[in-house]
Amino acid sequence: MKQLLSQKLSPQQIQFIKLLQIPTVELEARIKEELEANPALEEGDDADDDFEDQEVGDDSSDDTDDFDDPDSEFDNPDNTLDEDFDDSRSEEQPEIELPLKDEPVDQKESDSADDLDLSDYLNDDEIAGYKMQGDGPGEDEDDREMPLADTSGSLIDNLLDQLGFADLDEKQEAIGRQLIGSIDGDGYIRRDLSAIANDMAFAQNVEASVAEVEAVLHVVQSFDPAGIAARDLQECLQLQLERRPQDEVTEHAERILNETFDEFTKKHYPRIQQRLDLEDDELKEAIALILKLNPKPGGTGPVGMGKVQYIIPDFILTNDNGILNLTLNSRNAPDLRVSPAYTDMFRAYDKGAKKDKKLKEAVTFVKQKLDSAKWFIDAIRQRQNTLLRTMDSIVRYQREFFLDGDESKLRPMILKDIATEIGMDISTVSRVANSKSVQTEFGIYPLKYFFSEGIATDSGEDASSREVKHILKEIIEGEKKDRPLSDDKLEKMLNARGYNIARRTVAKYREQLNIPVARLRKEL
């Protein structure tokens, strides 16, 4: 015999967790899905109906309770529904609350005393699709992307339209469609032409040689946008130069790409100048022309693969003469209620045949849907409360930043700081911070932006790593472009400003800012 102590989440807790971690855009879709799946849930203001749990034996008026509370028909001790069907009476559901990590969990609170198994009427996929690993975020949660609205068309459709106007026979057109289908999001064809020919032979029963595929490839590469269907960056830039006026600058740029491409990618400009025998002005003009070309043609044009996107913020923060006002996005506060029509069905039972089998099945179904609707409404309300409590704590912690938007005023802040202040588990704060954003007077920021580590300073106080990155970016932007600063020099400059930071940390922050090393930042 082996005795194990384990913690199990109730279906209500799982539902709350999943609702908490999704942003506004997905919440709207989730509510719509629930409205379609549960007829006992409907949109509307519940101001006239009280859906809060009522204690058994409440001394309030029976008439008022029976009319206002949709659960009164089956929570009322005088109701004989469960007795007639030989089912035990369901206990009142407690308010959904996730325990803190060190808080013991009473297993009895998460077990239902009702003989109706929750799995009978909760969506199986809803629970089976959720995985909890410890107290941290789930595997899918870490890399959850901010949901963005798609307002663009397809580059593939545009290329297929151009293919239709090309003077090709049936076989060549089939090859062209295969090539266009092989273009990736950046606009490149990175697969070998022999592999594409093999795909056509197996999938379409079309025999084509590599030479035939390459011939059609040249046709596709003549389509708009310029540089499309290139096999590498060098070919992409060359295709774009071929469409430019063939003047002296274009000729020098083509020579640089054809003869000294490796030196160009490493910015070894003196070697290029010496090898091609170019004057300073000639080299500078040619390099400037190449840098204007598009290295990712797949994202260009009115119907490019790149999406024109926007973010819908979850919070809105305004500054009223130094008073910060925080509100949830109105889409985060839907008006939902339990359908009164379904509670009327319980009243109808008292007037019907109480031993009727079909009636028992119908009433059981209604009870399940009412329970599910009530849990969903409670989860939505608790989600709103948790979001506001967490964001309100962040606003208080980073008040100086929210007043004027100065990044240097961001304080070091980690998940544990907020979790301790609001009395919740770190995993709960993590779910709120993940994929959520706030709209301020200075722009829209993801909540993750406000969490950063502390860097020791000469004054003895910790500075936010965000502040250090901001200063690092300013130093690099102000450096001489012909003599960029190395990481060692950047380290000394930051140390001189009072930030105790090592060179490897400077390199890490520089990479996080997507700033290349000094050699690759050099300009003519």
Automatic annotation (TrEMBL):
InterPro entries for this protein: RNA_pol_sigma_54 (IPR000394), RNA_pol_sigma_54_core-bd (IPR007046), RNA_pol_sigma_54_DNA-bd (IPR007634), RpoN_core-bd_sf (IPR038709)
Entry keyword annotation includes Transcription regulation: yes
Domain RNA polymerase sigma factor 54 DNA-binding: 364-522
Biased composition (Basic and acidic residues): 87-111
Keywords per UniProt: DNA-binding, DNA-directed RNA polymerase, Nucleotidyltransferase, Sigma factor, Transcription, Transcription regulation, Transferase
Family note: Belongs to the sigma-54 factor family.
PROSITE patterns: SIGMA54_2, SIGMA54_3
Name this polypeptide is given: RNA polymerase factor sigma-54
Acidic residues composition-biased segments: 42-86, 112-127
Record-linked Pfam families: Sigma54_AID, Sigma54_CBD, Sigma54_DBD
Record domain RNA polymerase sigma factor 54 core-binding: where: 149-342
